[in-house]
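Appendix C. Worked example: Glucoamylase
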Amino acid sequence: MAFLSLFIYFFVVGVATLWIAHAPRPLQQTLTASDLDNWLSSEASIARGALLDLIGNDGKWAEGAAPGVLVASPSLDPDCKSTYNGCSYSDTLANNALDFYTWTRDSSLVFKTLVEMFRAGDTDLLPVIQEWISSQARIQGIENPSGGLADGQGLGEAKFTAGETAFAGSWGRPQRDGPALRATTMIEFGWWLLSKGYHQVAANIVWPIIRNDLSYVAEYWNQPAFDLWEDLYGRSFFTLAATYRALTEASVFARSIGVSCAECESQAPQVLCLLQSFWTGRYIRSNLDTGRSGKDASTLLGVIHTFNPRSECDDATFQPCSARALANHFRLVDAFRDLYDINADRGQDQAVAIGRYPEDQFFGGNPWFLCTMAAAEQLYSAIYQWHHLESITITEVSLPFFQSLHPTAVPGIYSSSTELYHQLIDAVRTYADGFMRIVQTYASNNGSLAEQISKYDGSHVSANDLAWSYASLLAANRRRNAIAPPPWTNPGAPSVPSTCSATGVPGTYSLATISTWPPMDGFPTATAAPCQTPSSVSVTLELTASTVWGEDIRLVGSSLDLGNWELTRSITFSTDRYSSSQPIWWATIWLPAGQTAEYKYIRVREGYVVWEGGVNRQLNVPAVCGEKSLYRRETWQ
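Step 2, the predicted output written as structure tokens:
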């Protein structure tokens, strides 16, 4: 009996110890406001440093990246699928540093925050901003699987290697938010240039890049594409909200530099008209055309991106303090309350960890740092607007949000001279701080912020040191400190057309090149690195050829790299982009710059080999300063 009792004791203790080791880390409920203030002050410094570490070519986590290129995370390698896949930095370098990836969307949002900080006095950021703009000019001209610059379709490509070459693998294409976000970030920098008298720099260096992106969004805005999570195809609230802001702000900016953007002025109202269709009456649906419940943190991200500090609580543009945006916040947060273990026992007036959407299965479906901080940032932005307006308006639409924080709230207008106004402000701020406390609780001890938080125990999941997470921390902290971004349109509600038109204006596109930045008195300026001819070039060949089951497409050619016409050394093409409507085979080969070779495609199946007809194809690998990639589309002959 004594032995049995001892066995039971150790068994119970062991199970309890195991449970404790894997139990959710409790939220820090006892922290005071000053504790959060101190942590955010320290974490903001860490986040700024981490972003610079992720930018080539000086960032310690961006080895091999071109100058100004933002690496989304140091944990990416060629085998990472979907968004990111938790691959180690050392493994990536072991493969090839140029296989890091940069997303137009991520880099534009990160640099939007850096430009805001620069305009507020962080002048040391100027060289890296200039280098980013220069890199985006180069990236705009890269031929890729979405297309090229001639018709603008290549601007819809979501990601590139950090060495500024095309990514040719299977992916969600196109994605139309990148050009709109990039245009907005460059316009924000353009306003600073104008304020300092650098009119020619704004007009001749920055505007040509913006011009291409505006042409793209004005032409293709009403066509479906993949959303910011890269898994839903349709018309996305986030993409269209970003498009509306870009077109609206660009029309004013264009006039300020002495040019016009007629398509901005004609298309912006129609985009705004379509945006109204996302409102369900209770929340903002994330996608008009497809998928899921429609409750999605991308709507929070759309709201904070289009925050205009001069605006009223306008429903049409879904301003942070608008009834629609607050109702959406309430419904979305509620969808995550019972979804994750780490959200257990959280009251209706308490913040919870937020994921992308309730149905998410990526890495098992977890909260994301950036989504949780977006929930806080919207509320801090709303508080800024209420202070500016000196009143809070509660409607039947926003009532559930307010009653969850102040049960006795009723519809009405409450001026800043009333007690209820201050009670509501305090309740909303405490609620917003709750989301930031979740981030504080689950951030690493060294301040590191990953992509996801395990829904079970709060440990970090997926990509580590995600650039977008750090930028979200910086933006949310600025809003918490009542630092608003520059306004992007006039105050007041814009006019929404009574009838929506599925319009689009054909764009004009031209390659923007930046050889150097002129010196700017009193400010550090990027020093252009001498342009070098690469030793090797990334050559991507894309062949349209219908095949039967078991049949492969290969390439063989006259050079050693292409097999010296030996079939046993031929290059096998990939089928991951093959479909019945688009039978695409492709391969990427690194070839010496300046090499000239002949080649042909062959069909290979067990028992036979078929050579394509016609004369040998000719391949001339460029040996030109700055040209690191070649993309060629061909058809079986």
